[in-house]
Amino acid sequence: MAEEVKLFRTWSSPYALRIVWALKLKGIEFETIFEDITNKSPLLLQHNPAHAKVPVLLHNGKPVCESLIILEYIDETWTHNPPLLPQDPLEKASSRFWAHFGDHKLMESIWNVFTSQGKEQEEAMATSIENLKLIDEQLKGKKFFNGNAIGYLDLALGWMANLISILEEIISVELIHTDKFPHLSSWIQNFSDDPVIIECWPPRDKMVTKFQIMRDNYLTRSICQVKPA
Amino acid sequence: MAEEVKLFRTWSSPYALRIVWALKLKGIEFETIFEDITNKSPLLLQHNPAHAKVPVLLHNGKPVCESLIILEYIDETWTHNPPLLPQDPLEKASSRFWAHFGDHKLMESIWNVFTSQGKEQEEAMATSIENLKLIDEQLKGKKFFNGNAIGYLDLALGWMANLISILEEIISVELIHTDKFPHLSSWIQNFSDDPVIIECWPPRDKMVTKFQIMRDNYLTRSICQVKPA
């Protein structure tokens, strides 16, 4: 039986992009179904009733949800090269730990910088810098997180290589100075140089417009909370 | 070399309890280091600088953090019986998905019931019930989540078997009706009947006192926000 691989994604989701990259790196043919998150399809709701979110990978009719879980599924299902996760349990635990850290502490702190201003933004900057330092340390002496090839943790943290510079552009703040984060800066370059990675980035101008609107909405809401009409 | 296995935990953490159970089920000898979360030890901060949280598993001097990641590490390191995760990639992805769902959507919705009152509590109850229904469906026709033996997802959701009834007692609300959640109710019974599980529960009276204080603090803070002094 021919394999059926379908990916439900949106054009902009950094979580879904992880799966696009992983499938392309593994050389898996797949069909893409673009979702509109303001008008989700009945199929998406059927395949991910608990969250109704992208990405969803549909493999021979069976859904797999949550991007980090899908990455592991891809690596365990199509075991040929390149491997995504390291084999050693300790290195594997470390990759999972930093992926989790990226999705929670790091993303939250950077998001707080992006959706605030003044003193609140300064505090969020300090937290983001602490978090980025921890990531920078993981990359000392390495091209990618697990050596010389792109793997699970590179894909999990891949959003940093594109999204941070978009957010920086919108708020005119520099988060990742090359001097402050030399290893992270080199990694961003190495990661972005890979043709599989670069061909999948969403259009930058559309991303800037989308995130500019999001920031404006956040700031309007936050002003309304302080000074109700 | 004799293996050195140390577990940093607190007496009450449901996350740390997952690791105690897993090590005991696998028959791994370990030393417990009890932490006071109001006065964390320098060792805990050294081993988990990113979060400074328990549990931390120290295996031959190497730290592994985050309870769900530690469970996978234990299963990959001590591969003898009982296995914790299923072998099939799809079943494994499903276990990871529901563990993640438990730690985020389910726990948050139940916590919102516990730390609110009135209309807000009613809304949180409705969300919790929807989430619990999804868990109940996973248990149809099964003794445990992956068949006849306790595994990863049982340990990940093990807090439900004890903590929910403690929260219910404090707020005098019944979340898990046997009629409404027949499979979940049976699972709670099956899980709690296991001697390894039951011997590790923290003392119920201390838990009630601890969580009663937490709820009081939440409600006081929430009243202060509405009516500042």
UniProtKB/TrEMBL annotation, chains A, B:
<dbReference type="GO" id="GO:0004364">
    <property type="term" value="F:glutathione transferase activity"/>
</dbReference>
<dbReference type="InterPro" id="IPR004046">
    <property type="entry name" value="GST_C"/>
</dbReference>
<dbReference type="InterPro" id="IPR045074">
    <property type="entry name" value="GST_C_Tau"/>
</dbReference>
<dbReference type="InterPro" id="IPR036282">
    <property type="entry name" value="Glutathione-S-Trfase_C_sf"/>
</dbReference>
<dbReference type="Pfam" id="PF02798">
    <property type="entry name" value="GST_N"/>
</dbReference>
<dbReference type="GO" id="GO:0006749">
    <property type="term" value="P:glutathione metabolic process"/>
</dbReference>
<protein>
    <recommendedName>
        <fullName>Probable glutathione S-transferase</fullName>
        <ecNumber>2.5.1.18</ecNumber>
    </recommendedName>
</protein>
<keyword id="KW-0808">Transferase</keyword>
<dbReference type="GO" id="GO:0005737">
    <property type="term" value="C:cytoplasm"/>
</dbReference>
<comment type="similarity">
    <text>Belongs to the GST superfamily. HSP26 family.</text>
</comment>
<dbReference type="InterPro" id="IPR045073">
    <property type="entry name" value="Omega/Tau-like"/>
</dbReference>
<dbReference type="InterPro" id="IPR040079">
    <property type="entry name" value="Glutathione_S-Trfase"/>
</dbReference>
<dbReference type="InterPro" id="IPR004045">
    <property type="entry name" value="Glutathione_S-Trfase_N"/>
</dbReference>
<dbReference type="InterPro" id="IPR036249">
    <property type="entry name" value="Thioredoxin-like_sf"/>
</dbReference>
<dbReference type="Pfam" id="PF00043">
    <property type="entry name" value="GST_C"/>
</dbReference>
<feature type="domain" description="GST N-terminal">
    <location>
        <begin position="4"/>
        <end position="76"/>
    </location>
</feature>
<feature type="domain" description="Glutathione S-transferase C-terminal">
    <location>
        <begin position="118"/>
        <end position="194"/>
    </location>
</feature>
